[in-house]
Design goal:
Helices cover 38% and strands 17% of the residues. The chain contains eight helices and ten strands. The strands form two sheets. Strands 1-2-3-4-7-8-9-10 form an eight-stranded parallel beta barrel, surrounded by six helices.
Length: 295
């Protein structure tokens, strides 16, 4: 059972570095950040780049794993992303996890001047993006000609510190994405069923998540992979539950989701006057004591 956190890249580094160190001091397994150009209600405020932020966090911490939740093809290319990830993995001493997903229709989708891709176009690109990125991170020299992404004798020497490459945590709920997670992911990520966020119940959310895990198991079985050892990550804050309202609420929430099969829960570091507002003292107690209640 693991407990991790998300630190949004909204702080100038003089302040931000204190938050990343605090995450390590609180004992979180991993501290992730969003890899967006901007995000929802934070669009008109400060927002810094994910990979430079993680690079700085690697220098400010010693034990904490670091990662993205999630990177997407919306404004990334596998060739340039691979080079940056290999560098980041080296700087961190092998503490990087790449959370990766197909992207959505947020601000990233049109920031480069393109029309937002349809769900099918996003799935098509994701299906090409992940395997090429996998090759770029595991092979010294890669050439490939794809419909959307290509590489021409790209060299990535010496490769990742983590072998054969840094782990992928693939965010997916649809059949094509789940097949990518089964084939390329060391972990699978979900936020639950978005249709239940506003009008659903915690019980309905649990059933939806149980269904997603079953579909992941089917995707793994199709390629002869055992789903049981695969890490299963729930990014909280997007289900009908309110686990950060109290310590007891979180312990109850965590117990039910660990029983469901999740191995890692991710909570957002509190941000006052935002959708991620939470009582700091409750959050700290959850970080330091909650998992002990479940062992």
């Amino acid at each position: 059972m693991r407990l991790s956190t998300v630190i949004l890249p909204i702080h100038r580094w003089a302040e931000g570095q204190k938050i990343w160190r605090r995450a390590e001091d609180l004992g979180f397994h991993t501290a992730y950040t969003y890899d967006h150009l901007s995000w929802r209600s934070f669009r008109d405020g400060p927002w810094f780049g994910a990979l430079p932020t993680l690079t700085a966090a690697a220098g400010a911490t010693e034990r904490l794993r670091l990662g993205t939740l999630v990177t997407s093809p919306n404004f990334r290319h596998p060739v340039t992303l691979a080079k940056e990830l290999i560098t980041l993995d080296d700087i961190s001493g092998g503490r990087i996890t790449l959370g990766i997903g197909a992207g959505g229709n947020g601000f990233d989708a049109t920031a480069l001047g393109q029309e937002a891709w349809t769900p099918k176009e996003r799935a098509d690109r994701f299906a090409e993006f992940v395997p090429l990125l996998d090759r770029l991170l595991t092979e010294d020299v890669v050439s490939e000609r794809g419909t959307f992404y290509s590489a021409d004798e790209v060299r990535n020497i010496p490769g990742c510190v983590q072998r054969p490459r840094l782990p992928f945590a693939v965010a997916a709920t649809g059949p094509r994405g789940l097949r990518l997670a089964a084939r390329h992911g060391q972990a699978w990520v979900t936020t639950g069923d978005p249709k239940l966020f506003e009008d659903g119940t915690p019980e309905q959310s649990l059933e939806a998540l149980r269904g997603q895990i079953a579909k992941l198991g089917k995707a793994c079985a199709e390629i002869g992979r055992d789903v049981e050892p695969m890490e299963k990550v729930l990014l909280t804050g997007f289900t009908p539950d309110r686990p950060l309202d109290s310590f007891d609420a979180f312990v109850d929430f965590a117990g039910k989701h660990f029983e469901l099969g999740f191995t890692e829960l991710v909570v957002h570091m509190p941000i006052a006057d935002s959708v991620f507002a939470a009582d700091e003292s409750v959050f700290e107690k959850i970080a330091t004591d909650a998992l002990d209640q479940l062992r």
